[in-house]
Amino acid sequence: MVSVGRRYIDGIKNFCCLWKDNDLYFYYNIWFEDSTGRVIKPTAHPNLKHFPKKGIICGNFYKRLVQECFPAASYNHILCYEFFCVHLESTPVETIVDHSRKLCTQLWDFSGAYRTSLDLL
């Protein structure tokens, strides 16, 4: 399902998507942070439709994504994160988005670093 999410995001304006398939909602989000944990927005917007599929044979998808989104920055100091979540169909969309943001934050709190997802909705 992550590959389906990648088809919906285009990198031009959308690094986040929410879709319904049968009885489930799927939420997929990519965001960037600097080395201090601050969320940063891309300075360039590459067309992700022309990116190779993720995998070892195709090279480092995330490294290339950071290089394309931040061409003037040192990409060693920019981190790219990806989040995928599944909810039941009965869950309201507003709750899904809010829950996903909170879950991202809580996952980072457990690791000892405070992070938050990028607000693109």
Give structural notes.
The protein has 121 residues and is of the alpha+beta class. The protein has one domain (1-120). The chain has helices spanning 2-8, 61-69, 93-111, and strands at 16-21, 24-34, 39-40, 78-88. Strands 1, 2, 3 and 4 form a four-stranded antiparallel β-sheet that branches. The two termini are 20 Å apart. The mean pLDDT is 77.
Quick summary:
This protein is an alpha+beta fold and 121 residues long. It has one domain. Strands 1, 2, 3 and 4 form a four-stranded antiparallel beta sheet that branches.
Using brief descriptors, characterize the structure shown.
alpha+beta, 121 residues, guanyl-nucleotide exchange factor activity, 3 helices, HPS1
Shape: globular
Share in β-strands: 15-25%
Return the string of H and E elements: HEEEHEH
Domains (count): 1
Query: What summary fits the major beta sheet?
Result: 4 strands, antiparallel
Mean pLDDT: 77
> What is the CA-atom radius of gyration, in angstroms?
15 Å
Number of strands: 4
Tally of alpha and pi helices: 3
Distance between the termini: 20 Å
